[in-house]
């Protein structure tokens, strides 16, 4: 029996099963990293190393309650951050992006305010810095970044601006790549060609779980193909390679071709956070074998071999980094508490009766507590 006058043998949409897949677009080629940029990468990575190490000491000294170190990820963070232009692009970090924030010019005392529990997400102005607040929700800012990027195309009403789109870069870990939000974000970004770079730092671990036990398909970058997103897998311990890969990704998104996925293969050399003991799930031998050569040592050797700078200049960068960490320590020590009422005042643009009631309760309780403490 025939229905609607259609042939019973025509395959209809079934024919699509044999349709050739569209090839992934090629990414633009960018200029090689210059000797001056290598030295800038070194200067920033050294500053980050000193601050990162210092932050662990501050936690042990009781100055800050908690910190998530990024030891070993300096090349991935600084290299990728230098590829974006924070005058127009927007950076969406996780909780482990000290290096990204430092390279983007965020004030480090304001950054540390979140680790001192003074203020959620840091004290800097995200709208002015074009660096979103840090937060501890795994994959938490990936959808935000796609939303921001989609906003750029909506604002342009489908017409590519003369100087291209402003681009969002969102940071996520290998573990975060298993979150449902990331799949939604990638699919949406690809469908709507949102100018966003998904920058994955594959540091080998999601707390105590190795990447092999939580990422199917061999790698995070392999997933790009499923969404039609071009993907680059790069040595995340080589800052010049990271900078080049991220620049190519940003150029692609800027030109209106949609999202790119960059997977930087690196290693979390330290604990997950100051409360973690990696000795419970990996041995020192494994750490040494998987970490490879220190990214800063590798860069130093390259700079000296290529004559981009001499030992004295690199030593001066070290000294400046040590002085900076000391200065930030003083700033963190001086950070006082914020007025408590802010937690009610900044929830909504227009307050609600319920919030006002909670605020009044809170004020009454804190005042009566103060009175009884003073008595
Ligand atoms: C939504 C959510 N789920 C779980 C956690 C607990 N948690 C904190 S960090 C983390 C692992 C994240 O690993 P990865 O994405 O690889 O980032 P890394 O910590 O290695 O930088 C988990 C599961 C969380 N903070 N948020
Ligand atoms: Mg990880």
Report on the structure:
- With 375 residues, the protein is α/β, with parallel strands linked by helices.
- It folds into 2 domains: 24-338, Rossmann fold, CATH 3.40.50.970; 343-374.
- 44% of the residues lie in helices and 8% in strands.
- It contains 14 helices and 7 strands.
- It has helices at 35-60, 74-81, 98-103, 108-112, 126-129, 142-155, 180-191, 224-227, 239-254, 284-291, 295-306, 311-334, 342-345, 353-374; strands at residues 90-92, 168-173, 196-202, 205-206, 209-210, 231-235, 260-265.
- The strands form 2 sheets. The chain has a 5-stranded parallel beta sheet with strand order 1-2-3-7-6, with helices on both faces. It has a two-stranded antiparallel ribbon with strand order 4-5.
- α1 runs parallel beside α12 (311-334) and α6 runs parallel beside α7 (180-191).
- The radius of gyration is 24 Å and the shape is globular.
- The chain binds thiamine diphosphate and magnesium ion (MG).
- Magnesium ion is lined by residues 173-175, 203, 205-206.
- The site of thiamine diphosphate (TPP) has 14 residues, from β4.
Key structural traits:
alpha/beta, two-stranded antiparallel sheet, 375 residues, five-stranded parallel β-sheet, globular, binds thiamine diphosphate, Rossmann fold, binds magnesium ion, 7 strands, single chain, 14 helices, 2 domains
The main sheet comes to: 5 strands, parallel
Q: In terms of quaternary structure, what is this?
A: single chain
Task: Please give the number of β-strands.
Answer: 7
- Envelope shape: globular
Query: What is the topology, as strand order, of the major beta sheet?
Result: 1-2-3-7-6
Stretches with pLDDT under 50, minimum 5 residues: none
**Distance N terminus to C terminus?**
93 Å
Return the CATH topology of the largest domain. Answer: Rossmann fold
Mean pLDDT: 95
Give the H and E element order. HHEHHHHEHEEEHEHEHHHHH
The number of distinct structural domains comes to: 2
* Percent of residues in beta strands: 5-15%
Which CATH architecture of the largest domain is right? 3-Layer(aba) Sandwich
């Amino acid at each position: 029996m025939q229905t609607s006058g259609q042939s019973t043998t025509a395959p209809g949409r079934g024919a699509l099963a044999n349709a050739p897949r569209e090839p992934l677009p090629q990414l633009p080629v960018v200029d090689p990293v210059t000797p001056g940029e290598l030295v800038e990468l070194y200067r920033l990575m050294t500053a980050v190393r000193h601050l990162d190490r210092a932050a662990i000491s501050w936690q042990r000294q009781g100055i800050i309650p908690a910190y998530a170190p990024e030891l070993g990820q300096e090349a991935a963070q600084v290299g990728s951050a230098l590829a974006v232009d924070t005058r127009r692009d927007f950076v969406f970090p996780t909780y482990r992006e000290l290096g990204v924030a430092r390279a983007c010019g965020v004030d480090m005392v304001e950054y540390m305010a979140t680790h001192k529990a003074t203020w959620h997400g840091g004290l800097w102005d995200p709208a002015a810095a074009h660096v979103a607040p840090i937060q501890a929700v795994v994959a938490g800012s990936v959808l935000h970044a796609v939303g921001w990027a989609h906003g750029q195309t909506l604002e342009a009403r489908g017409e590519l601006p003369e100087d291209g789109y402003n681009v969002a870069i969102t940071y996520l870990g290998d573990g975060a790549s298993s979150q449902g939000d990331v799949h939604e974000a990638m699919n949406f970004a690809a469908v709507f060609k949102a100018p966003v770079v998904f920058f994955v730092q594959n540091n080998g671990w999601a707390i105590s779980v190795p990447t092999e036990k939580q990422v199917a398909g061999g790698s995070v970058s392999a997933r790009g193909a499923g969404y039609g997103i071009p993907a680059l897998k790069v040595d995340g311990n080589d800052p010049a390679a990271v900078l080049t890969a991220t620049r190519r990704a940003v150029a692609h998104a800027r030109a209106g071709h949609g999202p790119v996925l960059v997977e930087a293969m690196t290693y979390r050399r330290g604990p997950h956070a100051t409360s973690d003991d990696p000795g419970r799930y990996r041995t020192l031998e494994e750490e040494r074998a998987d970490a490879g050569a220190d990214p800063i040592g590798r860069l130093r050797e390259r700079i000296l071999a290529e004559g981009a700078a001499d030992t004295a200049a690199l030593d001066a960068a070290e000294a400046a980094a040590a002085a900076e960490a000391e200065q930030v320590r003083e700033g963190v020590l001086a950070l006082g508490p914020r007025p408590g009422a802010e937690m009610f005042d900044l929830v909504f643009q227009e307050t609600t009766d319920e919030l006002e009631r909670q605020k009044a309760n809170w004020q009454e309780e804190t005042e009566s507590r103060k009175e009884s403490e003073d008595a």
